[in-house]
Amino acid sequence: MISGPDEARAFLRRLFDIAVAAADPLRCVPPHLPSLPNGRTLVVGAGKASAAMAQAVEAHWPGALSGLIVTRYGAGTPCRKIEIVEAAHPVPDAKGREAARRILDLAASARPDDLLLALISGGGSALLALPADGVTLEDKQAVNRALLNSGATIAEMNCVRKHLSAIKGGRLAAAAAPAKVVTLLISDVPGDDPATIASGPTVPDPTTFADARAVLAKYGIEPPQAVRRRFEAGTDETPKPGDPRLANTETRMVAAPIASLEAAAIAARAAGVASVILGDALEGEARDVAMVMAGIARALRRHGHPARAPAVLLSGGETTVTVRGRGRGGRNAEFLLALAVALQGEDGIYAIAGDTDGIDGSEDNAGALIDPSTLARAARKNLDAKARLADNDAYTVFSALGDLVVTGPTLTNVNDFRAILVLP
Questions:
Q1: What is the pLDDT of residues 293-321, one digit of tens each?
Q2: CB-based contacts of 387: which residues, under 8 Å, 6+ apart?
Q3: Which of 240, 255, 270 is a domain's end point?
């Protein structure tokens, strides 16, 4: 039986670590490797987990290989045969642009009997920053910043990104045709849609320029002139389902949010705590999701539904934050501060939320923890939780309280992990 705040917090942190470990590329990638080709094996990829995926491929590949991977700064791992490049995320930079150009050239060099092995994970969309003709990197950066602050979903953001890119939305695989293309995916998106993960560089794109225009209009984003002209012309569409250039492609999902939630659930039950997985694809404004979660936690504690305490409510997915203030903090910190405000110090309820890649938004923490004393401790430090929440400044609160969860880059990415522990 968990007793006391220290045990409750340690329990939640252990569940987060278990969820991250379940998506470790060194564990997940090897069982999904394809057969050796008659020709060369060319390895390309992008994402926060891509360097670790490349390391796993090198350790288990029985033949010769070469290639190039781009990952975010700080997430590189040493490889002997595959070159690892680090670039900026979530706003792309020139290093990502150059790496993407080289990756596209490598794919275009594939011969019919070669294998292009693509290692794709979340974050790859910003890292494969190769602008389409007529669009500059600066144009892409401006649109990216606006989308990140708008509250747009990841699917909406990636729809726009695909139509600004020379490599995303199936274009990478099209460049390699007719060579065999096998993509190993680590999902960080609600629904695990391969076309959304890293903006689907090796899979058909069902979205259109009209869809991209609608996203910008929905969020009131005024794009640079070059982007507006490209979107209005709509003459350079992405490869669609049925495109013959993508006929020799295959995708394999090697890790996904539900597997990490299930691993945490098993660990919770082993500790005598009931577990309820609320879903692996929850979306919506972080504050709104927090209000709903607070209601479920209260119902569980007071009425024994949907389980009897002690119990933990587990969920994954990706909330959004519409940035209106000037503070610091990613979506998980904002979710937790909103949850603490909603719970108003209710006894027996503890929570953790964190991004499984180790970085919550653009800060240095994966997430944070709350307990029944969070608001009171903040008040003693002259921190008004409601005011800080209004200013999108959750990071400041949790930093002052010593409640940040700091892991550094985890070298994987299966989106956000949330666990709310309810004690009797």
A1: 999 999 999 999 999 999 999 999 999 99
A2: none
A3: 255
